[in-house]
Amino acid sequence: MNSPQDNDQDEVVVVEQRDKFTLAYIALAAVIGLAGGGLIGSTITESKWQNRYEVLESKLKQSNQQQEQLTVQVEEKVTTIEDQVASRVEEALEKERAEHELQLKDVNKQVTALEKANIDLEQRIAEQDTQIIQASADNDKLVQQADMQASMFERSREIFQREFKIKYELEALRTERDELRPKISQLKKDCDVFLSGKSWDAKTDACDKQDEAQSRITHIDQMIQVHLLDLKQIEQLAEDIGM
Known about the structure:
It is a single chain. The chain is mainly α. About 95% of the residues lie in helices and about 0% in strands. The protein is built from three helices and no strands. The chain has helices spanning about 5-15, 20-195, 205-240. The model has no long low-confidence stretch (mean pLDDT about 80).
């Protein structure tokens, strides 16, 4: 299809072959035709562009709508994913929290059991310490009692020996005194006979023997009193030590 400019050129060639009036008429007609052709072409072009613009605008609106829908879908999906992630995280945290609480309870139970066992052990140790202290005190008391008993036994043995010795000596002194008393009378008679000079048979030492015998009896009496006092002290000592 030829453009309006090609038609105009053909008309100009024809006009040059005609006379001037015809040329002028043709020129005027050409100008009118050119103007009309341009107006028609412009109208057609504007119509095509208008259609294309409307199509593009429609596509753009569809694209915008699709993009908006896609954005909404993406946002909804992101929100859903975030909610799911948050829910899973919360579930995981809750599970971990529950496990931690169980572990903490178990640890607390173990700690409580250990504390109780420690308290029981401390009580047993305290009781054992008390028993050891009491046993040590009892042992010391037994040792002291044993020492006292040994000392008392030794003292008792000494007391018995001394008592036996004193009683033996006391008995001997009494026997000697009982034997001397009858002799005193005879020695006194012999001394009186010697002093009277009436008998040549009188012994010169009769008075000395009487004095010696009397002095011995006096000494024996003193010794008996001393031994009796010793026996009384021994008896009191025996009572004091529980014999």
